[in-house]
Design a protein that fits this description.
Length: 248
């Protein structure tokens, strides 16, 4: 091809950079960029030029993504899934790579129905509502609701001081200073509900060991005499708790 300068009427510069890409300068003259560094990419600009950062020339592993190391772009050490998984899944580290996983909610909810027979034996046999969470952990109740469902036939018989409460470790310590199932609710001939936030209704202050890795149970701890009555055994109490597990 003819090589000359702008005054000779040719369209090319007289010299080019070895391995440098050609481009058209503003004057219409063909010239060349610098050769760039191995792994750099050619980018548009005035004039066009190679990137400062470099990129890998090969795909080093399935599922890896490009990540900056402060100087260049390199393949990530962990891998990422190529499919989204089930609806609602999130990316979670398994300690080596990232995987699509069902999210673990911070807050949990549990519902337990106390039968009439369980209520009438609740002093001798506390009913576990939430199992012990494991060593170094405790259960924190955020909201609770108790629904007394009157079966429509006959009432419970209970002494004036008999109530039902939630306890750590079956029978050790009140979960809340307030009483969720009062005597009036137990002997009621109509369905009733009580609901509250324990943190707003009375707090507990106990040694850490009392709440470490213990369950939460419903217990009639106010009297050794059991609740009686309700011959039809059709009155029940639904317990609904929202909680989270706290690492101590």
């Amino acid at each position: 091809m003819p090589i000359g300068n702008n005054t000779s009427g040719h369209l090319y510069d007289t010299t080019f950079t070895t391995n440098g890409p050609l481009y058209s300068a503003a004057s219409g003259v063909m010239t060349s960029s610098s050769a760039g560094t191995a792994g750099a990419v050619y980018q548009a600009g005035t004039p066009p030029a190679f990137s400062t950062a470099t990129y890998p020339s090969t795909a080093t592993g399935t599922g890896k993504i490009l990540i900056a190391n402060g100087t260049n772009w390199v393949a990530s050490t962990p891998t990422f899934p190529n499919s989204a998984g089930s609806s609602g899944n999130v990316l979670v580290s398994d300690g080596t790579n990232f995987v699509s996983s069902t999210p673990t909610p911070i807050f949990k909810q549990v519902t337990r129905t106390l039968t009439s027979l369980e209520i009438k034996n609740l002093h001798a046999t506390p009913i576990e509502i939430i199992p012990a969470p494991g060593s170094g952990k405790t259960i924190v109740i955020t909201t609770l609701a108790f629904y007394f469902i009157y079966g429509g036939n006959n009432v419970f018989v209970a002494g004036s001081g008999q109530t039902i409460n939630l306890y750590f470790n079956n029978t050790t310590t009140f979960v809340t200073a307030s009483t969720p199932v009062t005597n009036a609710m137990i002997v009621s001939s109509t369905s009733r509900v009580t609901a509250f936030n324990p943190s707003l209704s009375g707090n507990i202050n106990v040694a850490l060991g009392v709440v470490d890795n213990v369950n939460i149970a419903a217990w009639q701890g106010t009297s050794v005499t059991e609740i009686s009555g309700n011959a039809n055994n059709d009155n029940t109490i639904d317990i609904v708790l929202t909680y989270y597990v706290l690492t101590l």
